[in-house]
Design a protein that fits this description.
455 residues; alpha+beta; Alpha-Beta Plaits; Chitinase A, domain 3; Trigger factor, domain 2; five-stranded antiparallel beta sheet; four-stranded antiparallel beta sheet; elongated
Length: 455
Amino acid sequence: MATVSRENIGLLTDKLIVKVTKDEYLPSFEKKLKEYSKTANIPGFRKGMVPVGMIKKMYGPSVFNDEVLKAVEKKLYTYLNEEKPDIFAQPLPLEKDLNNLDLNNPADYDFGFEIGLKPSFELPNFSKESMVHHIVDVTDEMVSEEISRMQIKGGKMTEPEQIDNEENVLNVVFTESDKSGNIIENGIRKENSVLLKYMTPKMQKELMGKKAGDNVVFQLSKTFEGDKLEMMLQDLGLDKNDKDAAAKYFKLDIAKLGLIEKRELNEEFFNEIYPGKGITTEADLRSTLKEEIEKYWASQSRNQLHDQLYHFLLDSTKMEFPESFLKRWLQSGGEKPKTAEEAEKEYPVFINQLKWTLISDKIIMDNKLEVSEEELKSHMRNEVMGYFGQMGMGEDMSWLDSYIDRMMKDEKQVDATYRRLITEKLFAFIEKQIKTKEKKVTGDELVAMQHNHHH
């Protein structure tokens, strides 16, 4: 009988040796050859009358190898199912020269496999931890800015005769030049549109009163600042961090001027923004909009808290990994093989993802967190209603249940919804275990936190 032996060969890495005797693969090999002889179509022989010796000569080596490997694989997975070692991925075969398999001299063979073992670890004590819950206060000014943005988005473009407003849109041609406006041969030339208010106050003042057909010479770094300078450098095909590029001069030719005429705040406009909500006054609009903005920032605030929790768990949970095994697995375990260099480069991100999976699985299992079928359906129903609700669903909702039933048969859809809901439950559970203290921040400050430190 075949046997499987196990020995440790490194940190969280074991070797399995599967030994298979000829009695366990030879009968199936001989049976396969007889089946081939009955079905093979070979010129000069009637179907089913091809000699087994000829079949053995033609197909024997590949069939022999297949049957030996099938016997090995069967014993390997029987062992894994019975012993249930807590391993990562699938066993990786150690080098074995299949040329040593000789169908003319059947023998006992052994094959080696490497397995990577999952580490044991302890979670940090949640009750001793404290996190900062950053809260954004939604001000009247923020509501006013959003209303102005909506008015501009729904507004009508006009063409003023001259620049007279920071909201003017300038359709321009940027041509690289020297300080005096002399065009640089083979320099940059780019058509663009830019809002006057994106420029520095000094440049805005200089451009006031200019008309289509006028031009000025400017230096990038003295005309745009901060993120606006970075944006303009990238628009011109330059490195946003290149100080020499920021010092370049350009001639700006004004081709056309535009100004968006803001929409009037009336019932027609309110109904376009929030159809069917019966908003009739600016006060109603401000109240509805403020509620939406508060929900948005509450969601962003919670996401940032979850980001803190994620990094806290990763940084505070100590565990070891079978590094050599996992790097080998990265090379061969995906859809496309990777080089050792590619696996080495991907390993840090991969190991963080793996660590988070182990941590989250342990929290879910230890605390019996689960998502019921009804919760899955309810979430899908809310998503569908939220999507179609924007277009008006009408009164007849009889189709919705059958639509949800079809969604529940889509494995990818169910899996994605389950992962979203179980992750929400995971973070909600941890939130209850830790202490939080609120801190007021601006929207820009919260966005900066998310930009600088986000998983």
